[in-house]
């Protein structure tokens, strides 16, 4: 990979390397085409030569991973991957997010590590529940959003109607950069609204390779696309009259969103998305620490862990912590400080992860993701730094809505059981709650969605060697409760207090109604909200 000239002074070089990074995630409802788009982006950036290389979709080239069995069987994506590839003068870091709602907490963690998000919408379906939810997270965090209307090669809704829906339902003003030529289902190309010309796409066999595109001047576009071009011009003029032209300031603050039209499966419009990322998406900037102080990109090295994952591949059984570099330079072998414990952390085993393939990573810059193996001590939210101490704010946990008691089925495996539970807890696969009443052998797993339980149970038996049973508990609502009130709440009918592994006490209630009526009857007891997983 090309790097900025190495003879520039160190801090100027860090700033220059940061400047050319684009770190983003694709958020979407399952099936909108996230995996397909991810591959198409890598294909267009020439990081892979054929679609199908990263996710190993059915019928295409497959990747080796027993962990993927569950994903394949269910047709969902659980594990997230970080892809890095060069495009033009930039380095693109694409952080994949699990699509299923049950893993929203995981997605949330990934979104703490990006500078922009691509909101992918299915042209026929418009805004779907998971898109809405993830959009809210981006909005809360002020993450700029690029909207991509995908599957334009299939019959779908009218483009203007989709723009209205986005504005009306989520208050995001759209500023299309491209506009489709041809209705959904008859995708001929796009109008580049900034330059005014027609980009005509040509299909390739099976969409496995880059689709050729021709750039046709406005005066020739009418001959080339006839009435479809006329419609595109007319609608584009309507958009301009309505103030829907791109504006960088409001894009960066998350008030407006540039829009592109694609067919990820046919590789149409993917180049345009890469160009927009390079030309318009923000590069890494200062990140504010727990004390509210910004850590500029050229400060000494700092990073935070946004994800911990194990068991992805049986040939690499260890645990990997993914950290986003916030400032400074990372060199493999650097000894960093783990802010939570003050202990040194040796980075001999740093990796970059490309889909399921891993390779040794020698250096990294702000915006990059480092995969750190042998990372038993690291948890999501932890800060690593060199020289000048810093601590970034913790990643808030989501409010669990499903609770189940975990019990080992084989008493002789109690050590494996304990270690396994601890590991799942540290990775954030589930939250682990305990109480004296229930005892250490019967911890309570708390999750945003029941599929997290399936993952936990699967890993306990296949990876930790300690099969478990999970008995669900009749609670739906959790609130943080003060230790002083814990006993009182615990004595209530349909309520129980348990302690999370980070020491926070959670009061569980059978229903929202019970929790609210308890609160009405006992206004002195303070119950605090966790982040709601579903709006
Ligand atoms: P996800 O990661 O968001 O869940 O979606 P994914 O990429 O897996 O895509 C879901 C389905 O939609 C796949 O079909 C995929 O081929 C299809 N798809 C994605 N983008 C487009 C597009 O632009 N146009 C059309 N027509 N289809 C698209 P599948 O039948 O589930 O799988 P596959 O066998 O085709 O891979």
TrEMBL record:
Cellular compartment(s): Cytoplasm
Q: Taking every annotated instance into account, which residue ranges of this chain make up the domain Tr-type G?
A: 19-285
Q: Does the record carry RNA-binding as a key word?
A: no
Check the record and name the Pfam families matching this protein: EF-G_D2, GTP_EFTU, RF3_C
Q: A GO biological process this protein is involved in?
A: regulation of translational termination
Q: Which residues bind GTP?
A: 96-100
| Tree of life domain | Bacteria
| Chain ranges passing through the membrane | none
The UniProt entry, under HAMAP family, shows:
Rel_fac_3
Q: What does this protein do?
A: Increases the formation of ribosomal termination complexes and stimulates activities of RF-1 and RF-2. It binds guanine nucleotides and has strong preference for UGA stop codons. It may interact directly with the ribosome. The stimulation of RF-1 and RF-2 is significantly reduced by GTP and GDP, but not by GMP.
> What is this protein's record name?
Peptide chain release factor 3
Q: Which organism is it from?
A: Mycolicibacterium brumae
């Amino acid at each position: 990979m090309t790097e900025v000239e190495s003879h520039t002074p160190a801090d100027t070089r860090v700033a220059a390397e940061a400047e050319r990074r684009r770190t983003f995630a694709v958020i979407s409802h399952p099936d909108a085409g996230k995996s397909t788009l991810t591959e198409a982006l890598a294909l267009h950036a020439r990081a892979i030569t054929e679609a199908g290389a990263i996710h190993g979709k059915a019928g295409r080239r497959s990747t080796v991973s027993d962990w993927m069995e569950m994903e394949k069987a269910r047709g969902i994506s659980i594990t997230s991957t970080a892809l890095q590839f060069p495009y033009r003068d930039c380095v693109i870091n694409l952080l994949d997010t699990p699509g299923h709602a049950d893993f929203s907490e995981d997605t949330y963690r990934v979104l703490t590590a990006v500078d922009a998000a691509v909101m992918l919408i299915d042209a026929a379906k418009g805004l779907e529940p998971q898109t809405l939810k993830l959009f809210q997270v981006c909005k809360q965090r002020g993450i700029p959003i690029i909207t991509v209307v995908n599957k334009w090669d299939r019959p779908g809704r009218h483009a203007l109607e989709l723009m209205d829906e986005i504005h009306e339902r989520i208050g995001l003003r759209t500023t299309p950069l491209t506009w489709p030529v041809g209705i959904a289902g008859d995708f001929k190309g796009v109008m580049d609204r900034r330059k005014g010309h027609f980009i005509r796409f040509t299909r390739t066999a099976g969409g496995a390779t880059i689709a050729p595109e021709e750039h046709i001047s406005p005066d020739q576009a009418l001959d080339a696309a006839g009435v479809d071009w006329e419609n595109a011009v007319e609608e584009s003029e309507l958009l301009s009259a309505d103030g829907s032209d791109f504006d960088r300031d409001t894009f960066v603050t998350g008030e407006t969103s540039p829009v592109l039209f694609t067919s990820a499966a046919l590789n149409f419009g993917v180049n345009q998305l890469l160009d927009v990322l390079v030309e318009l998406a923000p590069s890494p900037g200062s990140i504010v620490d727990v004390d509210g102080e910004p850590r500029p990109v050229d400060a000494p090295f700092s990073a935070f862990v946004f994800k911990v994952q194990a068991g992805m591949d049986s040939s690499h059984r260890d645990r990997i912590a993914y950290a986003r570099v916030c400032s400074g330079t990372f060199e493999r072998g650097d000894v960093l400080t783990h802010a939570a414990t003050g202990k040194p952390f040796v980075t001999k085993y740093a990796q970059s992860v490309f889909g399921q393939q891993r390779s040794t990573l020698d250096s990294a810059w702000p915006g990059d993701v480092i995969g750190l193996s042998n990372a038993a001590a690291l948890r999501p939210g932890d800060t690593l730094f060199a020289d000048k101490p810093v601590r970034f704010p913790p990643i808030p946990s989501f409010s669990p809505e499903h609770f189940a008691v975990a019990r080992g089925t084989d008493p002789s495996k109690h050590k494996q059981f304990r270690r396994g539970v601890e590991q799942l807890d540290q990775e954030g696969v589930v939250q682990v709650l305990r109480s004296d009443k229930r005892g250490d052998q019967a911890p309570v797993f708390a999750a945003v969605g029941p599929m997290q339980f399936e993952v936990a149970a699967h890993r306990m038996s296949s990876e930790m060697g300690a099969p478990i049973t999970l008995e669900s508990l009749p609670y739906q609502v959790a609130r943080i409760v003060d230790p002083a009130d814990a006993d009182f709440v615990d004595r209530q009918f349909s309520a129980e207090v348990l302690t999370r592994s980070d020491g926070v006490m959670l009061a569980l209630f059978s229903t929202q109604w019970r929790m609210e009526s308890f609160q009405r009857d006992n206004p002195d007891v303070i119950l605090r909200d966790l982040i709601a997983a579903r709006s």
